[in-house]
Amino acid sequence: VDLYKSNRIGKIRLYYPDEGVLQALRGSNIEVILGVPNDQLQSLTNAGAATNWVNKYVKAYSQNVKFKYIAVGNEIHPGDSLAGSVLPALENIQKAISAANLQGQMKVSTAIDTTLLGNSYPPKDGVFSSSASSYIRPIVNFLARNGAPLLANVYPYFAYVNNQQSIGLDYALFTKHGNNEVGYQNLFDALLDSLYAALEKVGA
């Protein structure tokens, strides 16, 4: 935390609730994304377990830790055994946050990656794969009802490594000068816009 402060870094993502780190974050004014680890998703489909989780890791620190998002699961894919646990866990964590009267301080979401896209180029034609669409649609509906964004891990490196014939290194590294034929200077922006386009197609 001192390293963050000395470098004026105002945001942190914790992939699991480390109570030592949470304690150190008290009064720091650093915005926190707190993750629910994938191996805890199934247990949090139980409402009581979700309430206990929120009380222990969120409510207990909420007065002086600046929680921004609770990320329920990370990069779960539709074929994963835990895919069916994501939405119930989201709903239960949201209910527990509301019961603790913390819904105005933070949003509950989940994090995906761009491998859920069936097509990403050109970005305006971005669309989720058929299996991902049926998985993500109810999650997107939940997020829309609660005014929460979908969290996305965008990795230009993997997109480049898997398609070096079509993607230039300078385009992936933000060093390309001038726009490409569809108006993008870098791969990150193109991937991000393809996600936006895909989300619009599932009703976001």
TrEMBL record:
Q: Give EC number(s), comma-separated.
A: 3.2.1.39
Residue ranges annotated as transmembrane are none
**What reaction does this enzyme carry out catalytically?**
Hydrolysis of (1->3)-beta-D-glucosidic linkages in (1->3)-beta-D-glucans
Q: What are the GO BP annotations of this UniProt entry? A: carbohydrate metabolic process
Keyword annotations for this protein, in alphabetical order, are: Glycosidase, Hydrolase
Record's Gene3D superfamilies? Glycosidases (3.20.20.80)
Annotated Pfam families: Glyco_hydro_17
Coiled-coil region list: none
Highest taxon of source:
Eukaryota
Keyword Ribonucleoprotein attributed: no
Gene Ontology MF terms in the entry:
glucan endo-1,3-beta-D-glucosidase activity
Q: Which family does it belong to?
A: Belongs to the glycosyl hydrolase 17 family.
What is the name listed in the Swiss-Prot or TrEMBL entry for this protein? glucan endo-1,3-beta-D-glucosidase
Please tell me the species this chain comes from: Glycine soja (Wild soybean)
